[in-house]
User: Which sequence fits this backbone?
């Protein structure tokens, strides 16, 4: 299992860029990193996924350094609706792999 | 169309009762999971099924018994409910034997009194 460590909580203000870093020191060669977002009273939903370097979509960017022992989710110009819990997951193909989500980072965006 | 659905959404029951939670996915996925989320937001996997076969069974009391009648359904039956079972239970599914994006259901909020 690739254990992940994230800050428990973060605060930000509308319009700011938010960066949430996740540590995954024992990531394996064939593992990739996925981030999920969870709003209150809902199930987590996929935001972004990457293997190395940088990935960008319409919602966020994901930065992964060369050693892949950490990753940073970047949310540009957050709004109040970005208040949620963000989970970093080190994942791997194969039915026997145990996905380990952990506790996530609770992001609160203030007006 | 809802991709992953769970019923019921809320479940309030007494200690010692037996209850079931149902999950259905219409995504054609082969792998389905049950997760438990506690009050501290830890999202912990309980079971994984691939093509109706149990793949992962984490350290879960044997009072919890999953059942997959077909690839699209994964139900969770809980016997002799205890106070500590109170949590939110999420069903999820993924394609290609796991490891792809997981699609979660809306959750079932279980409160044991």
Assistant:
């Amino acid at each position: 299992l690739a254990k992940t460590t994230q800050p428990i909580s973060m605060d930000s203000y509308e319009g700011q860029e938010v960066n949430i870093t996740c540590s995954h020191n024992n990531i394996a060669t064939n593992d990739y990193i996925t981030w999920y977002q969870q709003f209150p009273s809902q199930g987590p939903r996929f935001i972004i996924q990457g293997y190395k370097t940088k990935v960008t979509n319409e919602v966020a960017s994901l930065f992964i350094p060369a050693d892949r022992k950490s990753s940073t989710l970047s949310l540009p110009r957050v709004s109040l609706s970005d208040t949620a819990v963000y989970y970093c997951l080190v994942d791997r193909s194969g039915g026997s792999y145990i996905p380990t989500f952990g506790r996530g980072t609770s992001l609160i965006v203030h007006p | 169309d809802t991709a992953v659905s769970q019923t019921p959404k809320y479940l309030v029951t007494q200690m010692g009762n037996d209850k079931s939670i149902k999950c259905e996915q219409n995504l054609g996925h082969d792998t389905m999971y049950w997760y438990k989320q506690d009050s501290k937001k830890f999202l912990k996997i309980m079971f994984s099924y691939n093509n109706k076969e149990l793949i992962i069974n984490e350290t879960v009391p044997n009072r919890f018994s999953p059942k997959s009648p077909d690839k699209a359904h994964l139900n969770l039956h809980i016997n002799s409910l205890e106070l500590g079972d109170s949590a939110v239970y999420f069903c999820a599914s993924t394609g290609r034997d796991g490891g792809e994006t997981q699609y979660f259901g809306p959750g079932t909020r279980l409160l044991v009194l």
In short: The mean pLDDT of chain B is 90. Chain B has one domain: 4-112. The longest strand of chain B covers residues 43-50.
